[in-house]
Amino acid sequence: MSLSCFELGERMLSVDEALDALRELAPNSLESESVSLSASLDRVLAEDAISPIDVPQNTNAAMDGIAMSWPGDNGQTRFALQGEVLAGSRFDGRLSPGQAVTITTGAPLPEGADTVIMSEQLLWAQEESQEGVGRWVEVQQADRVRRGQNVREAGEDIPRGTKALSAGTRLKPQHLGLLASLGMIEARVVRRPRVAIFSTGDEVTAPGETLPAAGIFDSNRFSLHGLLTRLGCEVIDLGILADDFTYIRGALEEATQKADMVITSGGVSVGQADLTRKALDDTGRLGFWRIAIRPGRPLAFGTLGEHEIPFFGLPGNPVAVMVTFLQFVQPLLRTLLGEHQWQPRRLTAIADEPLQSRQGRVDFLRGVYACDDQGRLHVRTTGRQGSGILSSMVAANCLIEIEAARAGVAQGETVTLQPFGELT
Ligand code: AMP
Ligand code: MG
């Protein structure tokens, strides 16, 4: 049974319950568009790529040398050369057993040829006979030659008509190369989600402005901008909003007109929550969640407008913003992008120090992991773990994820970590 995100109420949710509810909300990906292959890097493929050709197109030589038609078990070590095939050309004739041609790497094997011998194993000779000058090769260490060696079969990489890449693949350089090898010049990709972001808080000040005595510079909009850009979203930056019902409602209404998702930070902690909740209730349906996670409580989640655009009200603390984005916003955006099976990458490492956590909630600590000379991963924290200490994210190369069932981790025990990667 799946939970609607609006039926969850004020109960404390497990991380998995919250992720399930999110999946319910965005079952389909966004529409697709065609972009040139070189512009498709980091985009998500919208449909399977089926190969229209065999790759490689022809059975071809994997080495420079000779291609020959296997002579049988007659011990033949000397071969008459019938011509040469260079990459990009073809040999028109057919080789009979015991005949050979010189060949370069990648050139198609002549008909009848089945074996390639590399040039380092050959002695070349010319011989005059009644028919003129003939070219020959003598094979060294002929007992090492195996029938069929050094040959790349047509279609051995990708046979014609088979799936070369699956829908939902985020295109890396190797994927671009592979699509190009099929002759494609465009890729059908999921369009970029448009994500509106704003910060809230009377104390929150835009960098570049004078910092008031009780002010704090707005870091959240910039870390969110970076995370969203790396994920392939178009960011609509709506700036900073004072803790004011009318402003917040106005911004939300504006955002629902042009965004596929709206993310705010701040203004969801006790006291301010009522204000945000009221503004959100006016423009959409809101569920406030208490997820058993640290940092990252509370988190507002719901939909806005008649098109039910997903909304996240992230906490205000800069580390909590990044952690909740990575754990909850990211999976939903990836679903919208068609990456339906996405999971964070996880590794296991030995804790080099005792780690604090509380049973019943997932604790995310900022960590630094490294490999020892025996190939084992070790991890320690970056030190102070306050959810406002953004320098702990800067010093880290992973999040240490301590499962809800564990009360703490002793030195030498293993822990799960999520290495920083694509986004961080
Ligand atoms: P709030 O959830 O609004 O109570 O904010 C929690 C903490 O995060 C407070 O110390 C805020 O000053 C801080 N905070 C809120 N928004 C931002 C922001 N955009 N950039 C940096 N810090 C913020
Ligand atoms: Mg605030």
Summarize the structure.
The chain is an alpha/beta fold and 424 residues long. The protein is built from seven helices and 29 strands.
Strand content: 25-35%
Number of continuous helical runs:
7
Any ligands, ions or cofactors bound here, and which?
A: adenosine monophosphate, magnesium ion
- At the fold tier of CATH, the topology name of the largest domain is Molybdenum Cofactor Biosythetic Enzyme, Chain A
Verbal overview:
The chain is of the alpha/beta class and 424 residues long. It is built from seven helices and 29 strands. It has helices at residues 15-25, 173-181, 220-231, 245-258, 273-283, 318-336, 391-395; strands spanning 12-13, 32-36, 49-50, 60-61, 65-68, 78-85, 99-103, 115-118, 122-129, 132-139, 151-152, 163-165, 186-190, 194-200, 204-205, 216-217, 234-241, 261-265, 284-291, 293-294, 299-304, 309-314, 347-351, 355-356, 362-371, 377-381, 398-402, 408-409, 414-419. Strand 9 (122-129) and strand 10 form a beta hairpin. The radius of gyration is 31 Å and the shape is elongated. The two termini are 34 Å apart. The mean pLDDT is 92. The site of adenosine monophosphate has 19 residues, from helix 3. Adenosine monophosphate binds next to helix 3.
